[in-house]
């Protein structure tokens, strides 16, 4: 049993992981929060209010902590100051392990909303450049498979989010000439289960922790949607040259923004994310690795068809 600190622990992805960690009953869990403690948090969890702009307070909060996992919303962390301060404090406090706020794609190309992830990847490399002072792992499950059930909620905490594969309206967007681009998709339950195993793992974490629930082509995703919905999906193909120029020539795009995006910025952000998702997929950013599959080879992942059949076969 070790002491685990979770930064940004009130977010929906963090709460999925926390539930899986609580189920093991193996660790002391401390959630770091900027605001007052929340009433709907499990009583087994200690909530600690911290100022992420105060290095001294962070060091005090992390004394005696074995592992720190960050789920801080990177869009709200200007220049990733909070995460950098947590990393610095973790090193000073003698923390053994750290996981930055990743939990998505392997690459960040053409996804400006993920620039913060790249900054933290580079920062972690820098702090260890003359010798390892902090063990860390980039946990990358690809796209949460749950999002393909949009608008239906398929897990306790994760909010539904639309993608370029819109099974609800029987349509999809693809990049012309890149129909065989690969994507990694993992259910949030499988992600949380693997994360809990990683926390229990006694060996050294790999720097990159790819999690492959499913690896399929974008064409296979469309074909599955057609089987589940009982008729062909309307597929629009866009040219990569237009996307590179910031042009979205399709008749539709993403319509529901992430809850972290303000109403004022939503329209521009939705277009940017639609273009970015298409471009990044075509360039392999969502073709994740399988380090944690190999580390926990006994674990049986949920197949895409089995999972989505439960969500769509009755719709």
UniProtKB/TrEMBL annotation:
One function term, GO molecular function aspect: oxidoreductase activity
Domain (NmrA-like) ranges: 3-245
InterPro entries with a match to the protein in the record: NAD(P)-bd_dom_sf, NmrA-like, NmrA/Isoflavone_reductase-like
UniProt KW keywords: NADP, Oxidoreductase
UniProt family annotation: Belongs to the NmrA-type oxidoreductase family. Isoflavone reductase subfamily.
Protein name as it appears in the record: NAD(P)-binding protein
Organism lineage: Eukaryota, Fungi, Dikarya, Ascomycota, Pezizomycotina
């Amino acid at each position: 049993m070790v002491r685990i600190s979770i930064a940004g622990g009130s977010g929906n992805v963090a709460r999925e992981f926390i539930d899986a960690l609580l189920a093991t009953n193996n660790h002391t869990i401390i959630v770091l929060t900027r605001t007052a403690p929340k009433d709907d948090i499990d009583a087994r969890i200690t909530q600690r209010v911290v100022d992420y702009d105060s290095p001294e307070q962070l060091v005090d909060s992390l004394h005696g902590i074995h592992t720190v996992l960050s789920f801080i919303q990177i869009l709200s962390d200007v220049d990733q100051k909070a995460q950098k301060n947590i990393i610095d404090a973790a090193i000073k406090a003698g923390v053994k392990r750290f996981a930055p706020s990743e939990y998505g794609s392997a690459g960040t190309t053409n996804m400006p909303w993920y620039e913060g992830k790249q900054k933290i990847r580079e920062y972690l490399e820098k702090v260890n450049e003359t010798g390892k002072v902090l063990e860390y792992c980039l946990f990358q499950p690809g796209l949460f498979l749950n999002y393909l059930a949009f608008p239906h909620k398929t897990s306790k905490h994760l909010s539904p989010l639309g993608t370029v594969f819109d099974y609800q309206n029987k349509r999809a967007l693809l990049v012309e000439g890149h129909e065989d681009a690969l994507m990694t998709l993992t259910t949030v339950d499988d992600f949380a289960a693997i994360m809990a195993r990683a926390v229990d793992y006694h060996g050294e974490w790999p720097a990159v922790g790819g999690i492959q629930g499913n690896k399929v082509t974008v064409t296979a995703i469309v074909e599955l949607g057609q089987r589940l919905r009982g008729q062909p999906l309307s597929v629009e193909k866009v040219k990569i040259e237009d996307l590179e120029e910031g042009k979205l020539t399709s008749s539709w795009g993403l319509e529901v923004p992430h809850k972290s995006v303000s109403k004022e910025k939503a329209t521009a952000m939705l277009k940017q994310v639609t273009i970015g998702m298409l471009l990044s997929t075509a360039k392999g950013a969502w073709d994740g690795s399988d380090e944690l599959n190999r580390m926990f080879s006994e674990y049986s992942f949920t197949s895409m068809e089995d999972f989505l059949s439960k969500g769509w076969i009755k719709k």
